[in-house]
Amino acid sequence: MRLRSMLFVPADSERKLAKATGSSADVLILDLEDAVAAAQKPAARAAATSFIAKEAGRLSSRLFVRINPLDSGLALEDLAAVVMPGLAGIMLPKTFSAADVLRLGHYLDALEARCGMPGGEVRIVPVATETAQAMLTMASFVPGIPRLAGITWGAEDLSAAIGAVSNREADGSLSPLYVMANSLCLCAAASAGVAAIDTLHADFRDAAGLAASCATARRRGFRGKIAIHPDQVDIINAAFTPSEAELAAAQRVVDAFAAQPDAGTLSIDGVMVDMPHLKQARRTLGLGD
């Protein structure tokens, strides 16, 4: 499952849903949570159901729904409405630990069976750093968690959870706690063997800032990024797609080790490369994690 760009779309906005379908986002996330006012949630749920049923044939590998949190009293209604053929995944907000992913997986087992869907077809991407408890349990993400497709993080809800006035320092940089959340997301995803997805860039008119944010995220190890506007998608896709030069360099590393399979280290143009370089080269070429 490709999670290079994941575009949020309020499920109660027919206009925004129509516009999003024309984007090149790898995933469309129909939002039933923060983008929808409380009074509009039933209408948003019905709209999401209708949209998935209508677009299942054309967008089935791309459709996610962000449900309301498991402890909100709304999650089961959300799931009962949207789990149907054509749904690719659920984004789970405000988790406390990987146990929430397992709990959601049990719900999905029953709902897939009800719909006649293959077991395990609906994948899960949790927003894993939005609660104070989650920051203390990121080590719970381990290899082999059923349905887990990726892990993303967020700073806005975490700052609200701890009572912070802002999640940024006076100079505009992220405060240490949120830098830590970014890093823990990377480590948790690597531990679980799934993609780490970077959080949103809030100013959707700031193309240069988005490109810089994407470049930083990719250098750090993220495989994709959240988008909140269709205009952000092409910038994100370009940033998280290896360039021709990167592909060529990676191929040279793979070819060099293939020619000397017993070597642990090699010299390429006077630079020493070893197994971590080979692993990264294979990842760049799409040959392995």
Q: Can you put this structure into words, describing what you see?
A:
The chain is α/β, with parallel strands linked by helices and 289 residues long. The protein has 2 domains: 5-239, Phosphoenolpyruvate-binding domains (TIM Barrel); 244-284, no CATH class. The protein is built from 11 helices and 10 strands. The protein has helices at 14-20, 41-59, 75-82, 98-115, 132-135, 156-162, 176-192, 207-220, 233-239, 244-259, 275-284; strands at residues 5-10, 27-31, 63-66, 89-92, 123-126, 150-152, 195-198, 224-227, 265-268, 271-274. Strand 4 (89-92), helix 4 and strand 5 form a beta-alpha-beta unit. Helix 2 (41-59) packs parallel to helix 3 and helix 10 (244-259) packs across helix 11. The longest helix is centred in the N-terminal third of the chain and has 19 residues, at 41-59.
Q: Return the structural class.
A: alpha/beta
Tally of strands: 10
| CATH uppermost class of the largest domain | Alpha Beta
Low-confidence stretches: none
Strand order of the largest sheet: 5-4-3-2-1-8-7-6
Order of helices and strands: EHEHEHEHEHEHHEHEHHEEH
CATH topology name of the largest domain = TIM Barrel
Percent strand: 5-15%
Assign a percent range to the helix content. 40-55%
What would you call the shape?
globular
Number of helices: 11
Going by CATH, the architecture of the largest domain would be Alpha-Beta Barrel
